[in-house]
Structure formats: C-alpha cells, structure tokens
Amino acid sequence: MKKKQKxxxxxxxxxxxxxxxxxxxxxxxxxxxxxxxxFEGLPLVVIAGRPNVGKxxxxxxxxxxxxAIVDPTPGVTRDPVEGTAYINGKPVRLVxxxxxxLQRTPGTMEAVLDGLVAERSLEMIAQADQIILLLExxxxxxxxxxxxxxxxxxxxxxxxxxxxxxGGKDEGAAWNYAQFGFRDLxxxxxxxxxxxxxxxxxxxSRLDFSHVREIDGSEPIRIAILGKPNTGKSTLSNRLTHSxxxxxxxxxxxxxxxxxxxxxxxxxxxxxxxxxxxRRKAKVKENVEYYSVxxxxxxxxxxxxxxxxxxxxxxxxxxxxxxxxLAFERGRGIIFxxxxxxxxxxxxxxxxxYKENINIMFGQMEFAPIVATSALEGKGIKELLNTxxxxxxxxxxxxxxxxLNMALNDWLARYPPPASRTAHFKIRYMVQTGVNPVSFLxxxxxxxxxxxxxMTFLKNRxxxxxxxxxxxxxxxxxxxxxxxxxxxxx
Length: 490
Fold this sequence. Notes:
With about 500 residues, this protein is α/β, with parallel strands linked by helices.
C-alpha cells in the first residue's frame, strides 16, 4: 500500500504577506480559479455574527486577499462565502456567513431573505469545528444577546472577538461582553489588523489537523453560471453540487458574492461558480450590486466554460448578448442553457424554434451547444454535464504542427487564397499557440491584405476538420520571414 505523504502546508512568500487593508484594496481581489494546493479533511472555521460587524473584512484578512464583498450597507453577505485560508501556516476551510437579523418586517421579501440567511448561517455553525463570533465594540444589542443564546449548544467551539477596537477605541465598552462567560475573548480590528495574530494563534491551537490530506490529481473543470437575475442560477448550482450553498429565492438579485462549490461527474472534478445576475448598467444603482456584477464578470477570466442561463419563459434579452460577447472574447467554452424548460411544450418543434431564435440573435455563435434543462426538477442535467465534458475536451485539444499543416495545405488546395494585383499574398504555415483558450497563428507574406472572409473560412475549417466544432477559436495572422522575397518575386 502506497504511503501517504505528509501534506505540505507551506505557501509562496508573497501569498503569506498580510494585507495592509483588505477592505480598501480592490486591486488585491481574489484571482478566482488560481492554481493552489487542494486538501481534504480540513477543519471548518465559521465567522458569524449580526450584520455589519466586519465579518467579511475579517474573512478577507485571513484569506489575505479580497473575496467577500465589503460595504457599509448591513446584510451585504447573504450566501456563505468560503475558501482555503492559511492561518499561522495551517490550512483551514474558512466560511463567511450572512449576518443574523433579529428585527424583520413581516410579510416583506427582505424578511424572507433575512430568514433564509439566518437559517443558512445556523446550518454552517452546526457543522463548524470552531466558530469566531464577531461582535462590535459599543452597546450590546438585542440581536447580540439572541445570537449568543442560539450559540449556547456550541459553546465549546466559540471564540469571541470584539471588532473595531483599533488603537484602544471603545475597549471599556468592549469588555462588557465578558459577562456572557466566553472561554476566549479578543479585542481586535479586522480592518487595521490589531491583535489578529493572537486570535489566529488561539484558533489554530483549538483545531485538529490530523485528518488533513493533500489531494493529487488533474485540475478541475471550472464552470461559471451566468445570466440575468432570477434565471435559476442558484437553483442549478445547488442541483449540481447536491447542496443548498446558494440561497434560492424568487427575489431577483439574491446572490451577491460569487458562491463556489464542487462536485464530481464522469470521472472528473468540477468547480461551479454561482454568480450574481448581470443587469444593464442603467439598472445597477446600488454600490453593492455594482461589485456583485463586476465579480460575476471577472469569473470569466478564471473559468473554463460559461453556462449562459436563459429563462425559457422570458426568452433572450440584449443583456445576454453582452455576457456572450465577454465570454467569446476570452475564448471560453459557452453553453446556452434554456432553463425552466418544464414550463414549455415538451416537443422537438418548440425546442427547435428556440434554438433557431438563439442562432439568429447570436449570429456568430452557431457553434455553441444549446441544452434545455429544468434545474428545479433536475431534467437535462446529465445532457448538460456530458456537453460540458465534450466542450472541455475541445478546449484542451492540442494538434501536432505536422498534422496541422497537412490540413492547411489541403484547405489551400481546395479553396486557394483570392489573388489580385493589390491583394496578393501567400500562406506559409500554421501553428497552434495555445489551449483553453484555443489559439492558432498563421504565417503569411502580407497578413494585412488577407480578407476577413478568408479568415472566416479558415476558422470554420479548423472547427469542422480538427474537432473544435463547439468552441470559439482565436486565429491570428503574422508576417512571414519570406515576405520581402515574395514581394520581389510575385
């Protein structure tokens, strides 16, 4: 039996440097999808408390980069946001939860959402190995007392931290929390870093790392779920991950942070990124929503495939074009997902009409697969994942240069480049310059005069003849070294 290696908890020096101020440095935002070590058996640490006490700021400080959205507006975080944090050199699974609200206006949508947030937060607390209860220096509120009462069954896992005490601010009032009998109580400043090291030392001393194992294996396939608000993104994410990580509501704009989950299918690991709904810029009014939308768009820089969700009841919108264009420009695999298909006639004619409409609206996207699903009922999910595996296989396909140029010579023989006295050029050879995104480089004597129609012809041949039929490809022309010789001997 192969002996398991001791996990290496080290991380690059740059990544280990503390952030000066994670709340005010958007340029240090997390690179979603960055390559990092993978572990199993990590201890779970949950940051909990009422709204606007600084939970997301503390989360970002421990993560040493900005992941959770930080904003003065209470209740910004709704879905639990998690990541692997290195605390005193040890990896932990760290979760930032939504704030627990005691006062709710009955019958309002916000009250429903607050209830869902509180329920999800309490679920994460029950699973936690350690809980950082974040409080705020000042008057003890009814929400603080109610939340502390709810934590009593988990008292042996609670570490209390009173935030916003930078430079000794409000320390006298902060010590009033000692009346609740916390085993450990720290006065900290998540924004300025005061006494964070003492909190980290206590936290690590309480955790058991004996079950932590480093995972070997290929990189997971990263899926970004994008679309307008209320198209079923969170429902699909929960369906794929077999979890309730994303809060699902009829209220558009429920998801704000990018929620990440994992699952396995077809012998491969997947990471799914549930994003905020992307609306037209004119309709984005809240500061929080602005960050949410930007975060959703940034996932395109770090995913492999974009699931563009279209509500089958509402059909396509101009905003879908923008999302599609952004994914196309980055060379990402794109799958149109006709969600809520259970609300439509279940026949081929209806589906064919929808597909024709998509192909008309997205004229240059005929290569992109279209899959009808019902995330709510679980229909079409297997076909969607099989399509994702197929698309990913094309995104990572590499063609040998010799085989590539044999195909190129055949295309040139079948459809020679157009020739005229003003637009004469010769195509020399072609190389594949990248995968995921897939890119090719063709060397020609006068690339500036190659017609766009001939470039389109070559792209279509690459797709259809070389097995890239379902993905966007990037094709660039570059001047051949023999350019001057050919000009002298046309």
